[in-house]
Amino acid sequence: MLRIGCHLSSAKGFLSMAQTADSIGANTFQFFTRNPRGGAAKEWKPEDVEEMLMFAAKKDISHFLAHAPYTLNACGKDDKVRRFALETMKDDLKRLEMLPGCMYNFHPGSHVQQGARKGIELITDALNHVLTKEQSTTVLLETMSGKGSEVGRSFEELRSILDGVELSHIMGVCLDTCHVWDGGYDIVGELDRVLEEFDKIVGMERLKAVHLNDSKNCMGSHKDRHEKIGQGNIGLGAFRRIINHPRLKGLPFYLETPNELQGYQAEIALLQGIYDEA
């Protein structure tokens, strides 16, 4: 079965997200833990979470993915920026214990002219402060496109972060198709080789989720501009190979394309139509 969903608004609560996912044919979903631009988090009501979990179980909706706000920068140059990242991650991870087995995805950050090595050091230090032995949430580093001073633009940088995390067994990676394509990895013509490289450097056992996004740009552009599935430079043929690849087939896939709900519903149906159940 293709485990496919999209990014949904959490403004109306958890039960509403699950009902929306079901209405558009999704069997998983991603959501922001708070406003994507940062700030205080909306209170999560235990009864709403419980109702969502009961509804999701009946509808076979699972593999929930929480996304940290875009403003979170664990390797920022400013102390206040790094402190915000620490406080946000701690709070998010504490609340996510209400969702057993949930994953938490975040952009590693931008080193802001400090250099990638310093950025990696700061990110690992932040993770060593916020991760706990008791947590059930798996924390995912997202692959990045390499624009500006982003950390995580290569598999080697992700591995360096993972190597520095003491509780690395609760860490994983979310592969974003637009980001790796814009970052210079040829997932169109050499998907097998890219996955072999990922396995050699990071380890396929670390890959826990995939963001499915086409790209407005050519490979190696380092720009990160998402496009609708099949309408960008990655193309529908590549997405057919990605969702059916034996090394990726069991993973949950999340759409972050420039769409409203109707567009997501059409993309989910499109991808389900080219998925090989065998």
Q: Specify the overall morphology.
A: globular
Helix content: 25-40%
Q: Into which percentage range does the β-strand content fall?
A: 5-15%
Helical region count? 9
**How many DSSP E strands?**
10
Termini, distance in Å? 9 Å
| Spans where pLDDT lies below 50 across 5 or more residues | none
Reported for the largest beta sheet, the result is: 8 strands, parallel, barrel
Strand neighbour order, sheet with most strands: 1-2-3-4-5-6-7-10
Oligomerization: single chain
Indicate the radius of gyration in whole angstroms: 18 Å
- Report the mean per-residue pLDDT as an integer: 96
Helix vs. strand class? alpha/beta
Order of helices and strands: EHEHEHEHEHEHHEEEHEH
Characterization of the model:
The protein is of the alpha/beta class and about 280 residues long. The protein is globular and about 45 Å long. It has an eight-stranded parallel beta barrel. The protein has nine helices and ten strands.
Task: Reconstruct the topology from this structure.
Blueprint: E1 4-7, H1 14-23, E2 28-32, H2 46-59, E3 65-67, H3 79-95, E4 103-106, H4 116-130, E5 138-142, H5 155-164, E6 171-176, H6 177-182, H7 191-201, E7 207-212, E8 214-215, E9 226-227, H8 236-244, E10 253-255, H9 261-273
Parallel strand pairs: 1-2, 1-10, 2-3, 3-4, 4-5, 5-6, 6-7, 7-10
Antiparallel strand pairs: 8-9
